[in-house]
Amino acid sequence: MERLKNPDELVKLRKSLESQHRPDMIRVLICTTGCRALGAEEVYKAFKAEIEMLSLKDKVEIVDTGCQGLCARAPVLTIEPMGIFYGRVTEADVTEIISRTILKGEVIERLCYTDAGKRIPYIQDIPFYGKQKKIVLKNCGTIDPKNIHEYILRDGYAAISKVLSGMTPDNVIHEIKNSGLRGRGGAGFPTGNKWEFVKNAAGDIKYIVCNGDEGDPGAFMDRAVLEGDPHSVIEGMLIGAYAIGSKKGFIYVRAEYPIAVEHLKIAIEQARQLGLLGENILGSHFSFDLEIKMGAGAFVCGEETALIASIEGKRGMPRPRPPFPATSGLWGKPTNINNVETFANVPVIILKGSEFYKSIGTDTGKGTKIFALAGNVKNTGLVEVPMGTTLREIVFDIGGGIPGRKKFKAAQMGGPSGGCVPAEHLDLPIDYETVKEVGAIMGSGGLIVMDDSASMVEIARYFMEFCQDESCGKCVPCRIGTKRMLDILSRITKGQGKEEDIGLLKELAEVTKTASLCGLGQTAANPVLSTIRYYLQEYEELINKKNTQTSSQPSPTT
Amino acid sequence: MQKNVSSCKENSPSVDLTQCQSILSKYSQPTHADLIPILQLVQDAYGYLPKDVLIEISVKTRIPLSKIHGVVTFYSQFYMEPRGKHTIKICTGTACHIKGAPEIKKKISDVLQIQEGETTSDYKFTYKPVACLGTCFLAPVMMIDDRYYGKLTTEKTENILKSY
């Protein structure tokens, strides 16, 4: 790959790639990231071998892609241009798919998605995809993430090219501010404002960091974006770096995500070869390079000051703010930290304009949000919807509802920092503020559906156990508050609760929330408070059943 | 996640430092920021972090052993004791939890006769829980080394363990 010397050469490269594109070519898109767990790689290899054997290479292209969203049907594949979607594909199906679907255009019914007994062969007709709006995930599952050309073919790096062809850092910040983009990692801080703080902070050396330490149990959107479209994150970071005046960036990725690390390494290497990372990017005066830092297994490192300590090679413990990382971050230098999904939103805003972006969503939440839909719901997977979509639309229209004859009980949003949203709020349009009002948080977007067999006290106990285990121990309110709350919750689930326990829990929750040093402790009580708010009766029943042994575990509902 | 750090002295009477030295030689002037990557590479090579190796790292990086010990014991990824040939990571995330992970955990303990965080006496398996593997659609799920096993039942789990 030859280095691109200016923005025109990027355009030329894209045009030449477009001219090589053959619309008559059949593309079989196979998810080999999330679906790998259920044998997608074997399916991919079988396709490759069979296509080779039948000498079909000039007619059929086999592409290994990132997540296509409908993980419940894994391993999945999409055949383009027909748009046929197959799920639960095994090696044994490959020969038949080639001979019948690819060569004759026939649909193999048993591999199709089923809805109420009806087979739906085409992806555009599947309700799971119908209500989604893919902005961040537009390339995820449709391109080979290991090939930079596929990203460039879809206007990749056109946004940074636009920025370098005449936008000032202030122009960029203005666009991002005007778009209304807010942090997708949990707190929802306006991204443009954060960039402005770092740009205005004193100092020559500034850093930009991508937080890919996705530790919330039940969240996997950042994994999917890093695996399926790593260049979109790199491009977002490039634009951010230009805006704040940074030459060096870090992507902090969880150690549990080996495929994400592998794809990022390839993406960074290819971007360097094309001169999209390194000195004088696209012939401009702007230079920037990136380094991957692998996490070593500590949930608290998702907190920005703890993450900074971890990159510096120390114990990942948070410190009091201020000073905020915007003025004193990595090695004491001004540092901008955004989440993976936040960065992936940036290229679209620059390319299509902030007005376009603003037109999607609600008054306080612009754009889309990715949710990781899991638990007791038919279509588990990854969904991207405009802000303001209701929980009912996500769980029932997209998610296909609750399997079996069970009823919806609650949706747990925001993981251990979030809360349970009961059925009475199913019609709530979701954005940062509305979710907060009902006692949960948007968080990173984990959405776990629970049916009526779930014990809410047990769920509260479960999250408290998690927070207590992951508490770094630095500040007393979190270290001891989580421990005491866990003790009480464990006692209640064992049927040994006391009448004063609920009052005590509320008091402890308040103190832990107010006095803890970082987000972990400040939000650790949310699952308790939200379950007391909506399911007080369950607490009381367990306490009143005092001394009678009840199971501390929920019944399995598979 | 408690670690048994006291057993450090028993496990490494004579550790060959060559691999560690070759990893360290790639860093001409290692800084504190290189510590975690160095530990990760060294652990990949040795399977765990023997005490002699930590001393060697301390000497070469000029980072006090106490600081290194602090880092090693903070992160759940690092081990100071030899691990089993295979590492079982059972996901205890929310989706897995409500879909029956507690029963699977019990089954693994029953079959292998060890508790979470322990290694079997024949050093075949090390068993540890992880907060979330990020594959909630496979719930309940576990990983053995780099391989995922999803939609587990107690019966399936037993068969998988026996196949190793």
Keywords:
heterodimer, A: 558 residues, alpha/beta, 5-stranded mixed β-sheet, 4-stranded mixed β-sheet, 41% helix, globular, B: 164 residues, alpha+beta, 8 helices, disordered N terminus
Summarize, please.
The complex is a heterodimer of chains A (558) and B (164). With 558 residues, chain A is α/β, with parallel strands linked by helices.
Structural features, described:
The complex is a heterodimer of chains A (558) and B (164). Helix content of chain A is 41%, strand content 14%. Chain A has 21 helices and 15 strands. Chain A has helices at residues 7-20, 40-53, 94-104, 127-130, 148-153, 158-164, 169-179, 191-200, 221-228, 230-244, 258-273, 304-311, 340-352, 354-358, 391-398, 432-437, 456-470, 476-493, 501-515, 519-524, 526-544, and strands at 26-31, 60-65, 77-80, 84-86, 113-115, 118-120, 207-212, 248-253, 289-294, 335-339, 368-375, 381-386, 408-413, 419-422, 446-451. In chain A, strands 12-11-15-13-14 form a five-stranded mixed beta sheet. A four-stranded mixed beta sheet of chain A has the order 2-1-3-4, covered by helices on one side. The longest helix of chain A is centred in the last third of the chain and has 19 residues, at 526-544. The N and C termini of chain A lie far apart (50 Å). Chain B is built from eight helices and four strands. Chain B has helices spanning 8-11, 18-24, 35-46, 51-61, 65-74, 94-98, 101-112, 154-162; strands at 86-91, 125-130, 142-144, 147-149. Chain B has a four-stranded mixed beta sheet, with helices on one face. In chain B, helix 3 (35-46) packs antiparallel against helix 4 (51-61). Chain B is elongated, with a radius of gyration of 18 Å. Chains A and B meet through strand 11, strand 15 and helix 17 of A and helix 3, helix 5 and helix 6 of B.
